[in-house]
Design a protein that fits this description.
heterodimer; A: mainly beta; six-stranded antiparallel beta sheet; 4 helices; 12 strands; 13% helix; 38% strand; B: 247 residues; alpha+beta; globular
């Protein structure tokens, strides 16, 4: 009867509670996600969401949406965002701020770096189990590739290839400092 | 789909419309705007990888099935979230006692590498980077059908390969507006300083990742041994003897 119907489905999840964080680094911030595993109704909507809150000079390592497009809406602070499309062109290279909306299509790689005391955003994704793959970090595509593929692909020495593979131990958030050139889209 | 895209009054056999030549082989692409392909939602490619040719890691915006038509080879994928389970163990054991961090003191660790032979059919979800290497003496020929009409493709009905390494000097002719435009790898678009910070490497190495001066294409020729970590072949698989003594 009523117990197993749409009427009783839970349809709310709070993403502003750091104690539920999926990614957490005290000095850098946290990331919280809601998908069909922790909010089953999303299976019907084919949607999921991600909530990010990072501190100044924290960087979200370059990553891409594997199976979703996403709409990124800034709720607080500012960040420098670079985005590269499937052709390898830099298609976005600006500072975003509170109230702005940015669409991130599937497969486009994005780097975000907080440039204010705190940068917070909500990201809506068009897949109930949205996945990301990262370009750098411990769980990145580069760590998953054999050294031979990296040395031959990029024509770098085995030592350099090892540094590319293993220097960054973080998976999602890392510390970033110093000036960054931006505002010059490379097309 | 546009209306009437499947109003097919006459069909014909299709040939590739673009051939992308590279140092270590070629990629032949069928024009997926052809009515039959547009109606079916398929995009179709053929890869001809010469011996010692390495098809560099690439991921797609759609799931695909790849069939090994001829030859033998190795295939690797990087599935997000999966661990590096192929590890050069003996060296790994020694280094641990010295309290060194992960990644130091052993030769390599990476995700699964599989042997390929004729008849193998490989399923690759969208967004999963994949590479092939021809370790045989004959061309490794693969054909791949990507399903652009599938929910996994969240973009338009165009095949959009993203290059992790290498580049495509000829560009993606099958994409309107991208003719005559060279396709670069994913690192090219980021500022080198950002790559250097993300990878914790120097800017020169970061610039090397961008392959600016590299015109070898997306299938390169490996010079010297290609010694990725892989299990021995099953006895009798492709008539080849196991490369290591099975324990």
């Amino acid at each position: 009867g009523l117990e197993e119907t749409l009427c009783t489905m839970r349809c709310t999840e709070n993403l502003d509670d750091p104690s539920d964080a999926d990614v957490y680094t005290p000095s850098l911030g946290y990331i919280n996600t809601v998908n069909s595993y922790n909010l089953p109704i999303l299976r019907l909507l084919h949607l999921s969401a991600l909530r990010g809150s990072i501190r100044n000079n924290a960087m979200v390592l370059p990553q891409w949406n594997v199976n979703a497009n996403s709409a990124l809406y800034v709720t607080n602070g500012r960040a420098h965002i670079q985005m590269v499309n499937d052709n390898g062109d830099r298609v976005f290279d600006q500072e975003v701020s509170n109230g702005q909306l940015l669409i991130v299509p599937q497969g486009f790689s994005v780097m975000k770096r907080a440039t204010s005391e705190q940068f917070q955003w909500i990201e809506f994704k068009t897949n109930e189990n949205a996945q990301v793959n990262s370009l750098a970090g411990r769980t990145s595509v580069m760590t998953g590739l054999p050294l031979e593929v990296i040395t031959n692909g990029f024509q770098i020495s085995p030592q350099e290839a090892k540094r590319v593979k293993f220097s960054t131990m973080e998976t999602t958030l890392t510390h970033s400092s110093g000036p960054m050139s931006y505002g010059r889209p490379r097309v | 789909q546009w209306p009437n895209e499947c109003q097919l009054d006459q069909l014909n056999a299709l040939e590739p419309s673009q051939v992308i030549q590279s140092e270590g082989g070629r990629i032949e692409v069928w024009d997926h705007h052809a009515p039959q392909l547009r109606c079916s939602g398929f995009a179709f490619e053929r890869f001809v990888i010469e011996p010692q040719g390495l098809y560099l890691p690439t991921f797609m915006n759609a799931g695909k099935l790849t069939f090994v038509v001829h030859g033998t080879g190795l295939m690797g994928r990087v599935v997000p979230g999966c661990p590096e389970t192929f590890i050069e163990s003996p060296v790994f054991g020694e280094s641990q006692g010295q309290g060194q961090g992960q990644g130091q003191g052993f030769r390599d660790m990476h995700q699964k590498v599989e042997h390929l032979r004729c008849g193998d059919t490989i399923a690759t979800p969208s967004g999963v980077a994949q590479w092939f290497y021809n370790n045989g003496n004959e061309p490794l020929i693969l054909v791949a059908a990507a399903d652009l009409a599938n929910h996994e493709n969240q973009l338009d009905r165009n095949l959009r390969p993203v290059l992790i390494a290498g580049n495509n000097p000829q560009g993606q002719e099958w994409l309107q507006g991208r003719q005559q435009q060279k396709q670069n790898n994913i690192f090219t678009g980021f500022a080198p300083e950002i790559l250097a910070q993300a990878f914790k490497i120097n800017v020169e190495t970061a610039q090397q990742l961008q392959s600016h001066q590299d015109n070898r294409g997306n299938i390169v020729k490996v010079k010297g041994p290609f010694s990725v970590i892989r299990p021995p072949l099953r006895r009798g698989q492709g008539g080849q003897q196991p490369q290591e003594k099975a324990n």
